Amino acid sequence: GAVVSQHPSWVICKSGTSVKIECRSLDFQATTMFWYRQFPKQSLMLMATSNEGSKATYEQGVEKDKFLINHASLTLSTLTVTSAHPEDSSFYICSTSSGTGSENQPQHFGDGTRLSIL
Amino acid sequence: QKEVEQDPGPLSVPEGAIVSLNCTYSNSAFQYFMWYRQYSRKGPELLMYTYSSGNKEDGRFTAQVDKSSKYISLFIRDSQPSDSATYLCAMSVGNTPLVFGKGTRLSVIA
After folding, report:
1. Bond preceding residue B44 cis, omega within 30 of 0
2. For each of chain B's 110 residues, which pLDDT tens digit applies?
3. Between A and B, how many CB-CB pairs are < 8 A?
4. Which residues, 6+ apart, have CB-to-CB distance to A116 below 8 Å?
5. Contacts of A106 in chain B (CB under 8 A)
6. What residues in B contact A93, CB-CB < 8 Å?
């Protein structure tokens, strides 16, 4: 069964709207979650690493003020796309790990959120 | 040279064929090797996970890692139309984020 739940699965909204995506770890406590973005027919691009109780680590080129990440509990991380524009339309996927100790492997992914900005 | 190279395909095979999917990598420090299957508009699903050279088998799937050649493979026996998907290899060093291949699109024709 699924170990990572992501919600919503699909969002369509107007330009300028802020959209929040939730990622829940169902079977285990996750100190680290990852947020990816995927364009059609392309591989996953890591956006940021979300750490419980501390600030997220963003990859180069990802605007931290645009993509707000909150990881307030061991089972929930949220990604908020602020003032979304059509170029933010993409498939956003979160992942977490069932690994023990300091190892973050293997990672399990949510089913993704398809974001369409009109 | 990219860290992980994977032929994007598409690869089309008849039902029942043996499928071979491959990735090469340049970073000899990679320790963990994974294969994910991704259906259209879904998140990647973990198929195989290995951390040493050699073979690992799970049902119709066999993952092979050759660290000396920096080469990993996924074999699918008795392929089914339901195996049609994009297959992503991924690897990492310890606690670092995964590095993905581009993914290979597979179509199994009934």
Report:
1. no
2. 678 999 988 999 999 999 999 999 999 999 999 999 999 989 999 999 998 889 999 999 999 999 999 999 999 999 999 999 999 999 988 777 889 999 999 999 99
3. 56
4. A10, A11, A12, A13, A89
5. 32, 34, 46, 49
6. 43-44
